[in-house]
Specification:
The complex is a heterodimer of chains A (112) and B (112). Chain A is an all-beta fold and 112 residues long. Chain A has strands spanning 4-6, 11-14, 19-25, 30-38, 45-50, 54-58, 61-66, 71-76, 85-93, 100-102, 106-111. In chain A, the strands form 2 sheets. In chain A, strands 2, 4, 5, 9, 10 and 11 form a 6-stranded mixed sheet that branches. In chain A, strands 1-3-8-7-6 form a 5-stranded antiparallel sheet, with no helix packed on it. Chain A is globular. With 112 residues, chain B is mainly β. Chain B is built from no helices and 11 strands. In chain B, the strands form 2 sheets. In chain B, strands 2, 4, 5, 6, 9, 10 and 11 form a 7-stranded mixed sheet that branches. Classes of the chains: A mainly beta (112), B mainly beta (112). The A-B interface holds A 4, 8, 32, 34, 36, 42-46, 49, 88, 90, 92, 97-105 and B 31, 33, 40-45, 48, 50, 56, 58, 90, 94, 96, 98-106.
């Protein structure tokens, strides 16, 4: 079992809908959680970081963390075609605080 | 503010040749990273440097060496390139406290 798992997709949603991306992780004393967006042929860019249980909102993006259930999710409200990309989940553990372990990513397509 | 820069952008090597990938950041970050990304996969950590003068192996270090030349620069060397090292290589940097990573544009390496 991978330490960080994401549905590979592809996930397809209509424009204006809510896109929900999920990530589960193994329990090794998790510390920090990140969502990165990667357009095809480009480098990853940070969207959200979340460090404690609950929700964190930034514009159309909401990250949700549930440490008891070992999952972190990213909601994208009012999805736009420009949101079409691969979304990478990353986790840092206390034992390797400086290193992130990445999931394989979920590809999202927003159809006009 | 250039962020994280990488050179070269593209490179083709023959099996057995050597080369060095260069990375520099101007954000005064302590931590720097080298990743490889193969098609349809997430990022795999090759080497990590928590600060100038320190380096640590990641998930896939075999066949690579690194040098943290100073706080700004972190280079990755392939001593004897193999076709299995064909990949896209990303350099990243982060602050020590947040671990939010900022990526360079990547180097596309093909080994024939």
């Amino acid at each position: 079992q991978k330490e960080v798992e994401q549905n590979s997709g592809p996930l397809s949603v209509p424009e204006g809908a809510i896109a929900s991306l999920n990530c589960t992780y193994s329990d090794r004393g998790s510390q920090s959680f990140f969502w990165y967006r990667q357009y095809s042929g480009k480098s990853p860019e940070l969207i959200m970081s979340i460090y404690s249980n609950g929700d964190k909102e930034d514009g159309r993006f909401t990250a949700q963390l549930n440490k008891a259930s070992q999952y972190v999710s990213l909601l994208i409200r009012d999805s736009q075609p420009s949101d079409s990309a691969t979304y990478l989940c990353a986790v840092n553990w206390w034992t390797n605080a400086g290193k992130s372990t990445f999931g394989d990513g979920t590809t999202l397509t927003v159809k006009p | 503010n250039a962020g994280v820069t990488q050179t070269p952008k593209f490179q083709v090597l023959k099996t057995g040749q050597s080369m060095t990938l260069q990375c520099a950041q101007d954000m005064n970050h302590n931590s720097m990273y080298w990743y490889r990304q193969d098609p349809g996969m997430g990022l795999r950590l090759i080497y990590y440097s928590a600060s100038e003068g320190t380096t640590d192996k990641g998930e896939v270090p075999n066949g690579y060496n690194v040098s943290r030349l100073n706080k700004r620069e972190f280079s990755l060397r392939l001593e004897s390139a193999a076709p299995s090292q064909t990949s896209v290589y990303f350099c990243a940097s982060s602050e020590a406290q947040s671990y939010e990573q900022y990526f360079g544009p990547g180097t596309r390496l093909t080994v024939t």
